[in-house]
Amino acid sequence: MALATLTPPAPLASGGAAIPLPLALAHRAVLALDLGTTTGWALRARDGGITSGTMTFKPSRFEGGGMRYLRFQHWLGEIAWLAHGLRQVVFEEVRAHVSTDSSHVHGGFVATLTAWCEQRGVPYEGVPVGTIKRFATGKGNADKAAVIAAIRARGFTPADDNEADAIALLLWAIENRGASA
User: Fold this and answer.
1) Residue 8 lies in a domain
2) What's the confidence (pLDDT) of residue 104?
3) Which domain CATH number covers 49?
């Protein structure tokens, strides 16, 4: 039987305290995303464990321009299913882009993410880049290496700056937005 379908145990017959719910029900699943062709992600599961990584949504030579967003939408569904539902999504809100193309790609990811969340009633929030960097390093204009070093100092091993940003964002959400309950 799935853990989430178990009923809470009744108080002990001798008048003792009730047995607490399993730890797996103690937290809300929160997903943090550094959106882009290589998307960094970090997930705090219901058991409190944090998993992170990167996912690439680069279109192949024979795909249309919208395929990356369809694959992203499908991937979001997979993550939500594996986490037994998402209670909150936070994403890095980028205001200045290196190029027009990167701006368009990021906008497509934001549109896909926000529509996906709206359809499922999942709260979402964009967090400015400077806020994430300031939380992780103490400087709002820290470079990528400083963010990676700060996240490694917290005991994580990000593969790249995308994953480091997602972990920093997740930790920010847990600490500042009540994602711990």
Assistant:
1) no
2) 82
3) 3.30.420.10
pLDDT score for 32: 97
Residue 44, in any domain of the structure: yes
In a domain, 12, yes or no: no
Q: In what order do the strands lie in the sheet with 50-56?
A: 50-56, 38-44, 30-34, 88-93, 124-128
| Structural domain harbouring 74 | 27-176
- Segments of the chain scoring below 70 in pLDDT: 1-26, 96-99, 178-181
Burial of 134: CB neighbours in 10 Å, binned 0-12, 13-18, 19+: middle
Contact 132, 172 (CB under 8 A): yes
pLDDT at residue number 39: 96
Q: Specify if 46 maps to a domain.
A: yes
Amino acid occupying residue 108: G
State pLDDT tens for residues 121-132. 999 999 999 999
- Cα–Cα distance measured from residue 61 to residue 49, given in angstroms and rounded to the nearest whole number: 37
